[in-house]
UniProtKB/TrEMBL annotation:
Keywords: ATP-binding, Kinase, Nucleotide-binding, Serine/threonine-protein kinase, Transferase. Residues 102-430 form the MAP3K TRAFs-binding domain. PANTHER family: APOPTOTIC SIGNAL-REGULATING KINASE 1, ISOFORM C, SERINE/THREONINE PROTEIN KINASE. This is Mitogen-activated protein kinase kinase kinase 15. It comes from the Eukaryota.
Amino acid sequence: MASKEKAVRRGSSPARAMQGQKKSGSSKQQQMQTVVAVFPDNTKGNRAFAALEAAAGQLMQTELQRIPFEKLDYGETATLDKFYAANVAVVDVTERHMQAALFYQLGLRENFDMKNNVVTVLESQSTFSEPALGGGNGPAAMARLAGTSYITYSVDSEGHTLSREGGSPLNQAVPLYKTFKHILQDMHTAYRKNHKEMFYKHLRKVREMKEGAELKAELHKLTMWIDEDPKLFTGDIIYSVLLSYRDIQDYDSMISLVDKITGHQEAEKPAVQVQCAFALNRRNKEGDRSRALAMLEKVLSVKENHVPDYLCLCGRIHKDRFVDSEHSDQDALQNAIHWYREGFKVQPNEYAGINLATLLVISGQEFETCQELHDIGSTLNYLIGKKGSLQSQSDYWIVATFFEVSILARDYTRACEAALCMFKLKPPLW
């Protein structure tokens, strides 16, 4: 089964490196406010980002970087680093397909007490109104992110971006850049952490310059630094170190780090617990998977934590149990199907979909007679098709997903085309 095990990428995050930092160690540099922005790559989204650029350009010690939504949603490590290490995150939720992922990432920032966040949305009516975010992501997400600043804006016929504050009527709208400037100034007063900047800078440096045993040794030194400096004993830093250990497959160190702080509130953060569960499943010593499932069940007992990667990790553990039983543990098979199905319901994605489809076929279902399988296959083909032609793909796992769904549907001609593309790509080591 060639399905991709995402390393809980979205659980993925508070980050390693304060991107864009200069090498200077002066007090001014240490006080630099970093801002990351995620806006739709279209005309109005670009105009809104330009307003943010104008605001940042008028503020001292403010550094702005735009990151692509696709890389954030995919869970690219470097992009996650930038998003979670930033002092301020500004995201635009105008596009419906971006909402679930962006609100999840903002929720994770807030979970780590990184509350300098701004949500913008393009008004859809002729007058300013509350964002109509639709589905299950709007009002509930806004309630959870109560500390986040919200801006509704419009783009007039001349291309000017306008917003309003305090419920003023449209004819009292102000340029959007002024609203951004006011918010960024306020947030700058809440900016903290010389110690965290230094830690993240050092973590990024060792990740860039070291590998294997040398990187492992440097990471152990950094964990000692955390022990010695209470300012660094925060959920986001612990999470960053866990991600670094994960990338070199040092699962023992991941588990030991969490075990060392068991009972502390930072260790109970859902993202920290999920990374530990991931490591336990991969290490797979006696009792590890039972412990991993217990940790995940506790996390998933809170409805707000029902996000695809957490749900799918639960499915992955049950699937591994099924495989280890030489395909005899039917309870494990049905549990795996249940959790992958839940992950696919929350947000249709290639990882959950291909695993769900594969397990349904193993359970005896067929594409020709099972409506659920047919619907999953259609959704997967749509998601993959949106990424371009098969020959243009550079992501091994996207092609592998196409290969698997073709095999399951018994479309061997397309499967052979995908297999050739997979052969030409360099697969990840894990």
